[in-house]
UniProtKB/TrEMBL annotation:
It comes from Nostocoides veronense. CDD domains: Cse1_I-E. Residues 535-548 have a biased composition (Basic and acidic residues). InterPro entries: CRISPR-assoc_prot_Cse1. The lineage of its organism: Bacteria, Bacillati, Actinomycetota, Actinomycetes, Micrococcales. Residues 527-548 are annotated as: Disordered. NCBIfam families: casA_cse1 (TIGR02547). This is Type I-E CRISPR-associated protein Cse1/CasA.
Amino acid sequence: MRHAATYDLRTQPWIAVRTAGGTEEISLHDVFRRASEVQALAGEIPTQDVAILRLLLVILRRALPESFDYPHERWASLWEAESLPIADIEAYLKEHADRFDLLHPETPFMQVAGLAASKTSGLVKLIAEVPAGSPYFTTRAGEAVRSLSYAEAARWVVHSQQFDVSGIKTGAHGDERVKGGKGYPIGTGLSGRLGLVVFEGGTLRETLLLNLVLPPEEDYEADRPVWERAPLGPGIEAAHSAPRGIADVMTWPSRRILLHHDGSVVTDVLIANGDPIHARNLHDLETMTAWRRSANQEKTSGVPTYMPVQHDVTRKMWRGLEGLLAFGVQNGSVRSEAPVALKPGVIAWIQQLTGRKKIDRDTPISLRAVGMSYGTQDSMILSIYDDELRLRPAVLHDERLAGLVLTAAEEAVAAVQQLGRFAANLAEAGGREASGPREGARLAGFARLDLSYPTWLGGLRSSSDLAVAQAQWRRTVAREISSIGDDLLRDAGDDALIGRKVNGKHLDAALADLWFRSYLRKNLTELANQQTPERTGDDHDGHAQTVS
């Protein structure tokens, strides 16, 4: 017998958070009331946290007054307040109360009432931490896949709308696109196609506000999240074929979903295709990813066309900062030639706030990068990208500081490449194949600097002496890369010490070492010593000075 049930997400616990006392689940009301106490979201996987953050941001921005003439001042008033505008938020949630009931018979939260098909999808399709066909990669198995608590199910519904895999779906009855009971691929959820970047503060309140981009002009009436629109049916919404604002794009219904429950737990789910969406030229609406002009897309469109930049899963975020900062590019500016790259809207917004002195330039914040990697025509999850850098707004706003951090990254990458060449030379001198040692050395070099660079970056302030900071970094790189080189030389073997002819010239370990050390000395150590003499102790910012 099916029991009547309700689960009001406004008052029932479902959002996983971390506080000083540990992790817990709290309601929508409490997540906003306690935002100054909550340290961070703490869901099952990083992409779920970002999906929930985007949901909370939409609620917050829709709860604010419909329009305001001075968005930067409005933001500053929120930042300086001790708490979020709770009365406005709860009034907004009350106005849309029926749409936040997970099990509502007519308007279930982010679902379609009465959705039906010839078969259901199974909870494994909803739970992104259970890779299809590879259950041994997860701790969730057995009973944990046969049912979900209402709280877990709610989190995964939010995640599915943003990150669900592509591939063939169960065909929903009433959807004209269905053929032979199947819904054919329309792509992943929009967030799955983005290289998402978000700012994080010391509390959830700070995190929400740091990502709350308030454009000077927006159509409040047109930009409605999915719960402010009429309830969806199983088919495509042809009259609403493209998002009309930030709130719309962040809650885009890429899937039609209906949870099945027994009155106590969720036992099954139906996931069908929803409204298709293309990521092309959404740069004015989607604020959490960088963008790059696409020559291939422009061949068809004939106009400047921007596509989102996804994270490179093979490297840490610090090696891709040039795409995120994109200095010299002013988002939204009018130029005779369209820029080749656009920074994420959240970064451009913090730069504006810093320049207008609405946020202190030395406020400690974190820049977090999250993304989903898919395989086999985007029909399965391969991995999740999750990385973080601690920095200060001054680094984003001051072009001199930004130039320093980009130059530092370039010098580090160049040093690692030299380390790889050194390893290859040693291998060839010993009569061995070079590609394996070269790649192994590169991986070792990046592993060292993946730890060093974030530490150095986190120490930069608006008052930092650029010459001192750059010298410190150059000595750090020289020391770390030289140390790995010492290990490579020690393990090179007798054959490498004797050497042999390579490309018609003699090569041995001593000669390879001479080239390698000469590069480090000329490009790092000597330049550092020209900037600041070698010394021990503390620099003017109180950071330990590194000695080569």
